[in-house]
Structures are given as C-alpha cells and as structure tokens.
Amino acid sequence: MRIDILTLFPEMFTSFLAGSLLGAARDNGLIDIRLTNIRDFADGVHRQVDDRPFGGGPGMLLMPGPVVDCVESVQQSDPVAGQLLMLTPSGRRLDQQMVESLATKSRIVLLCGRYEGFDERVRETLQPIEISIGDYILSGGEVAAMVVVDAVARLVPGVLGHEESAQQDSFSGIDRLIEGPQYTRPREFRGLCVPDVLLSGDHGKIAQWRHEQAVRATHRRVTTHS
Ligand code: ADE
Around Cβ 218, how many Cβ atoms within 10 Å? Predict the structure, then answer.
C-alpha cells in the first residue's frame, strides 16, 4: 500500500514513521509512505501558502494554488491515483469500518490543513473525502493523519505479524464488540487475582467467558458514555 502525506510540517512525522510497527512495515516494503511539503508548491520568494479570509474574520486560510498543485503533482507521480482524504473537523467521523475500507485501497493521499482551514475552492476542485477524528479542534490535520495512518497500517496484511489479532481488536469482527479484560503475570497483584477460567486450560470455556465479558464491556460503554 502507498500512503502519501501532504503537509506544511513534514518533520512532525519523523519519529512517528520511524516507530516500531510502521518503521518495520516500511523497511519490509509492506507500506510505502511518502511525505510532501505543500510549501514546495508555493510561489514567490516568501513561498506564501496562507492568507487572510476575504470578508474578514480571524486567522489565515490555506490558499488554493499551492494545495491543488501539490495534490495534482503527487497524484501524477504514480500511475494509480490515490483516494484523496482531507483531514478536517467538519469531515465524517473516523471509525473502524472506515479504517477497514481504507485499508483495502492500494493508495491513499492524506491532505493536512493548518491555520483556520482551506479556501473552499480546494474542496470544489479536488472533491476529497473529508475525515474528522473527533468533535474537537486540533491545530492542524497532522495529528489526525497520524491517527489514520496508524489505524490503517495495522490492518495491512503482514504488518502486525499475527493476523488474528486485528480481527480480535475492539470494534472488529462480525459483532464489533469492545474487548473484555485481559490479564498477564503475576497471577495475583495486590490481592487481585486473574479469573480462574483463564488458568483452566479449557479453550471452549475461555472463549465463552471472553465473549460474555466483551458483551458486558460493550453494553457498559453504550450505557455509561452516551
Ligand atoms: N484538523 C483540525 N481538527 C481536526 C479533527 N478533529 N479531525 C481531523 N482534522 C482536523
């Protein structure tokens, strides 16, 4: 899978992309992630990418020229155009189903905004799919793009190493349940014991217990957080 990230702050991605899971996936050729600086497509000595909104108002907007030129250039750098995704708080809220759908694409292009947003003609010209990672305002799309890359990359075959585990994640699998509690050593910690069933060696019973716990955790989340 190829992932292009278009941003004014490519250096924000350096340690994120070198991290263990993504770093290894890139080294193994499973994911090809490329960063492009939108400012490289700006004109003039100042390489200006933003300007004040017509009609007044706070902040600065990203100008359409550098953004559209950047996206078109990146798209043309490969015979297959990628699915263009714009990170913006007004987009559709990211969930695991969207992540699964994105993970099936051979190429995605992530466009990160900064300042107060994009000139509307960026949307009109490029017609991206707009994605939000939640109902709050970040100072730019970069952190949101990292969220998308992280969630998508771990679903690309071979990236996790053990394919089962993505299927068992919360929100995954046919019933999309939250994962229930899990335990590792020691068997007892400050008087709190690992449930006997997990030590029983009876895989049928363990699977049934885990399913019951997942149903409970999902129900609890629905009733306490909504
Ligand atoms: N840019 C700023 N806030 C954002 C959000 N919540 N989701 C995606 N992109 C953003």
Answer: 18
